[in-house]
Design brief:
10 helices, Rossmann fold, Arc Repressor Mutant, subunit A, 2 domains, about 15% strand
Length: about 200
């Protein structure tokens, strides 16, 4: 099988690629240092399995997963993560990820996951399944968009211009966001949403 591995920590990426290559079933492991490079490689080469770290520079593993699904690329996608954030898991599930597993596993376990998804099965770490039910995202799509704009340091006026809404409408949205997240300022709202993986 042909594998693409995207991981921004070079030492971990090299070690993982070498260990995967030791398996008789693996013919080749291509490497990408971030999500952007993974997308560039996927435009020119087909893979049986793509293994993505979730937090990478330029584009995340979730961004790559979304791009793969949008472009209808026929490959299995495994996301590996150290983050038990329900927002990440929800986004991965919504984009039909084949496996979403924690990093603290052996190569043998990863190979079992790879074979599992190649056989047409889905696999999710139980700890992540548990987390999604205890931390449901209360925000609407529009509220998430506004929080993303706030996280970029934009003022209410700038956000209103970007989203073609009135200043008052943005203020109302922010009031609702603060109430839902039980905080009293925009910065705390952004921090909570980032911590939960909602933005």
């Amino acid at each position: 099988m042909d594998i693409l591995l995207a991981e921004d920590q070079s030492m971990l990426r090299d070690a993982l690629a070498k260990l995967l290559s030791l398996n008789d079933e693996v013919t080749h492991v291509s490497q990408a240092k971030d999500g952007e490079e993974a997308i560039q490689i996927l435009q020119f080469k087909n893979f049986d399995v793509v293994i993505l770290d979730i937090e990478m520079p330029r584009k995340t593993g979730l961004d790559v997963l979304e791009w793969i699904r949008k472009n209808k690329i026929n490959t299995k996608v495994i996301i590996v993560t150290t983050f038990k954030r329900s927002g990440y898991f929800e986004r991965a599930i919504n984009n039909d990820v084949d496996a979403y597993v924690l990093k603290e596993r052996s190569i043998d376990e990863l190979m079992i996951t790879i074979n599992n998804v190649l056989a047409g099965n889905k696999e999710y770490s139980p700890e992540l399944m548990e987390n999604i039910f205890t931390s449901k995202n209360p925000l609407t799509t529009q509220e998430i968009t506004i929080l993303k704009e706030i996280s970029l340091g934009l003022s209410n006026k700038e956000i209103a211009e970007n989203l073609h809404l009135s200043n008052g409408t943005i203020r109302n949205y922010i009031s609702v966001i603060l109430m839902k997240l039980n905080v009293d300022n925009r910065l705390l709202a952004v921090n909570i949403a980032k911590e939960k993986g909602w933005i």
